[in-house]
Structure formats: C-alpha cells, structure tokens
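REQUEST FORM: STRUCTURE PREDICTION
Request ID: SP-0412
Submitted by: Lab K.M.
Chain count: 1
Length (residues): 400
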Amino acid sequence: MSQDAQIDFTDPAFQADPHPVYAQWRRTGPVRRTRLPSGVHAWLITRYEDARRALADPRLSKESAFSIGSSRTANRADGPAAVLSRHMLAVDPPDHTRLRRLVSAAFTVRRIEALRPRIAEITHDLLDALEGRERADLIDAFAFPLPIQVICELLGVPAEDRDAFREWSNVIVAGAQSGDRLEPAIRAMVGYILGQIAQRRAHPGEDLLSGLIQVRDAEDRLTEAELSAMVFLLLIAGHETTVNLIGNGTCLLLRDRDQWERLRADRSLLPTAIEEFLRFEGPVETSTFRVATEDVEIGGVTVPAGDPVVVVLLSANRDEERFSGADQMRLDRTLNAHLAFGHGIHYCLGAPLARLEAQIAFTALLDRHPGLSLAVAPEDLRWRPGQLLRGLEELPVRLL
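STATUS: Completed
RESULT:
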C-alpha cells in the first residue's frame, strides 16, 4: 500500500503549482492511498494509461460515491446535499444511461453550433463593456459571465442571479475547504433550484428546464430528486469548465508573450491551442469519486473493495510516457488525446459547448485586445481552493 508524503492539498504553494508533486508521484507511486482535505482516504491515480482504464472500468462505481467526495453533510440521507446527488456523474447504468439520454439531444454538435451567433453576441457585449478601461479582472468581467449567460439561457434560468449563483458554486466546488460555509451554500443552491423548477412549472417555455420538467411530469422518467440534481449539474458543469478553460488558457498565453503573438499571427493554430490548454493546465484537476465494487488491480496495486478512487486528470495529462515534451506547452500539438473531459460513459456531455465558447472567446480577445498583458506578476496569481477544479480566483490584466 503506497502512502503519500504528508502533502497538504490546501497549501497555496501546492495549489499554485501541483505539477512537480504529481510528476514525483508518477515516478515513485502512481497509485497511492492519500488523505484528502475532506478527511476521506482515497486512492489517487496519476499516470495516463492507468487513469484512462480507471475512468472506463465498470468495477469503479459512481453510485453513492459522489456523497463521499462532496462533503460529510452529503452522507446524511435527509441532508440538503442529498437533493443534488442523483445526477449523471453520481450514478451507474442503467440510471446513468437514462439520465444522459434525456439531455444529450441538447448537446449535439449541430445544436451547439446553432448557438454560435448568440455566444458571439454575448462575447462582444462583454468586451464592449470593457472599452476604455485600463485594467480589469478577466475572470470577473469575461471568463465567468460568458459561459454562465449561455447555460442560463439554454436552461431558461435568469442570468441576473449569476452573482449569487457564482458565490454558492465557488463554495460548493471547494468542498471541505469551504468549512462552515459549505452547508449554507448547498441549502441556498437547493432552494434556488427548487424555486426555478416551480416557476418553470407555472410558466413553461421552450428552454431545456421546461423540457426536463415535462419529462418528469408527463412521462415520469425523472424523479423529483433527479430533476433537481440534473439542473444542479448542468448549471455547475455548464459554466465551471469553460470559466477555467478561458482563464487558464489566457494566463498561459500572457505568461509567454511569444505564444500570444504566435497565436495572434496564425489563427489556424487556435483549435490545437485550445486542446493544449485543456491538456497542459486543464480546468478540472481530478475526477469525482468512484468506489471499487470488488478488489481492482490498477497499475500493479490492488485497490480493495469499498475504497474510493480519484483520477488526477491534471497529472495524467502531463504523463511523459504518453505526451512528448509533456511539460512544454505546444500550440501545434496534434497527438493530444488528453483526458480533460474525462473518458468512457461519463465523458463530458458539454465538451462541444466548452470548445465553441473558448474558440469564440479567444478569437475576440486576440482581435480586440492584441496588447493584453498581465497586471500582476505570475507568482502573485491566486488559484481557487479545492481539489476538483483547476482555475484562477482572479486574472488581473491590462487592456491598453
């Protein structure tokens, strides 16, 4: 049994740059049992091939595992988090198959591409609001409001509630590191979602939420708990990944002006550049929890039945055995089968939407703010707390 070397996952130094630690683990103990900030002991998988197999292994179950990783309050069957724990990322087939099928039609490549004009309009409206300003926090002014506006409109949820929603979301995804703020945030989120469902029942529209309610009420293919959890997942996952993709990618480019200028000069690199942002400093650090339903051998280590397993996507995507020059950002990298959106049946349903939003966002930034630069030293940037997501709290930039 491989143990960690007492790494403090909450240490700002680790959160600022976890890659050296993960690189050491890939070399010395790629599958290791570690105590996480929540107090839970879990097996962390850090190499690419092990990670890819684990993500698709049906013996590693999502059923009830979400509550292990999200918070200790989530283990209470009558607690507020129980309302949010019956979504696609927290269940196995056949429930997973049924739930994913109900929303997959809204996330086809064709349906997502039809959103391009509206996404472009929102993007330019946000950049219009920055005209004449010398400095801004690009997360607050651009990377966050763009995807949250898009997912709110898709669902039919009022985007003007986004500031409160952002506060709850930040606390919830930080998990145990949020301390006493966690349960109130979960209660507020539950109350908000239930209120939105009630409003859409009374006044249905053409949005995705109205469609999910119709499925729930007319065909009884969704339970009430599944409906609430689905809305929660779509709201959280529908914006968090893209916020961090835009923020992390912009930060990477501004820390290396040659890369920024190269992308400005050659926009044909943008598709591979976005994939490289996803690989090199991906928006999701770890998978959500899985639990071994039987003894499972992973990377030469036996994970006992009943133990939680976490795949470190950020580490797998820097695996030197899978990616040539893994610690180098190469905007023209073509062999790039990264795991930023997961793998297997839980592969991110919103990946096409995230890619489209990123493509439009980076194109607009390069066009309208060619002289964009960091307003602080790179070492002064603060990364969001928590184990699940990889993103900046703020991205101060100079616009002129």
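NOTES: Strands lie at 31-35, 41-45, 60-61, 135-137, 290-292, 296-298, 301-303, 308-311, 373-374, 396-398.
Reviewed by: T.R.
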